[in-house]
Amino acid sequence: MTDGGHLRIALVTQGFATGGGVPTIARWLHGELAARGHRVVIYDLATSRRDPASRRLTAPKSWFRRSLNEPLGDSPVDRHWGANAVELEPMRYRPRRELTSALDQFDVIQVVAGAPALARAVVDSKSPVALQAATMVRWERESRLAAMPLPQRLWRQVMTVLSTRAETRALRSVDAVLVWNQAMMEAVRPHAKGLVELAAPGVDVRRFTPSPDGWQHNGYLLCVCRLAEPRKGLRRLIKAYAHMVDVDPSVPDLVLAGRGQLSTSDSSLIVQLGLSHRVRIQSDVPPERLPALYRGASVFVQASHEEGFGMSALEAMSCGVPVVATDTDGTRMSIRSGETGWLVAQGPDEDGVVQALATRTLQTLSADGAAMSERARRHVLDYFSSERSISTFIAVYGHITSDAWLGTDVKT
């Protein structure tokens, strides 16, 4: 522990400097902990078969690499760690002796991951481990696998089975699991040996603020997500927008923003539906531009097949933007349907989902938007502000380190 009683925390994640929901949470957690005087070191682990710090099966020269630790130049990451045989996904979750030794110096290891398997890489350390995971690996990949060609799909299915085994071993080894929704809590509890706590990430409500001019009735419709990710449901969002245009040609433009590039099939669909002049794509939007992007929107629309939490929806709400979203484990936690926006039921009838998204969005524009804007902002202030959310994390650290001064109001 550092002077003054602050913790030394290793923040272990993947893709810290990139976009996406999990890196956004990791950056938020890093900033909030550091602001409270804790010493936080970012350990970023390999996520790609082309990882430059790894020993790769397809690159024999890399087999003789002395260390899997490599600095990343101007990156905000403190330490980047490769893996052995990195092309095989489960190998990215295996402990590395050098990494374990480095982690032993910390009071707490905080893992922030898309799925629990990543924590397997750190559980050999002597330090207590808290894991925050967005979803289970098989849930996350269901829609992705369906969209893959057969050979690739078979390979990914094998990797998913092996990663699920690593996921179970990780849950049995960590000291605390922090989950974002009730479905994850129910999935984790049968396997977890330690504390399981519902701990939603927070929003910096001083940064994500409403427009000084109030709700933007004529602002664009907005979706922020990983643009090439099938799980985000952009195909049905584009179809829903086409339906809106048919019903009301004066409906605002649609902006699809976020990390990466729109898939070829979704781009083709936009052209096929005659929407090229009405759908705007903004790729790789830097984090500093997000608040202004949200403030210019009238409605945030999310059509995901599955969401562990949905941080972008909360950021939009903090900016006073109503949200129309498909009903997922994550959006169910953050959106009050009929008050801060609308939840659209999912089911086998995809055309029904598309039409419901369009109907609720048009309803928000024509009747509900102004009141929902105010309630959305208030909801985030009351339940999802950084100050409120970070207290749960610090209380968990107190529990697993036996430091009572950190706070103990957590469920056991």
What features would you describe in this structure?
The chain has helices at 21-35, 97-103, 137-146, 150-173, 182-188, 234-247, 264-272, 290-295, 311-318, 331-334, 350-383, 386-401, and strands at 8-13, 39-45, 69-70, 79-81, 108-113, 129-133, 176-179, 195-198, 220-224, 254-258, 279-283, 297-302, 323-326, 341-344. The protein is α/β, with parallel strands linked by helices and 412 residues long. The strands form two sheets. An eight-stranded mixed beta sheet has the order 3-4-2-1-5-6-7-8, sandwiched between helices. Strands 11-10-9-12-13-14 form a six-stranded parallel beta sheet, with helices on both faces. Residues 408-412 have low confidence and may be disordered.
Average pLDDT, to the nearest integer?
A: 91
Low-confidence stretches: 408-412
DSSP summary: helix tally: 12
Largest beta sheet: strand ordering = 3-4-2-1-5-6-7-8
* Largest pleated sheet: 8 strands, mixed
Q: What's the β-strand tally? A: 14
In sequence order, what are the helices and strands, one letter per element?
EHEEEHEEHHEHEEHEHEHEHEHEHH
Report the span from N to C terminus.
24 Å
Radius of gyration, CA atoms, in whole angstroms: 22 Å
Which percent range describes the beta-strand content?
A: 15-25%
Fraction of residues in H or I helices = 25-40%
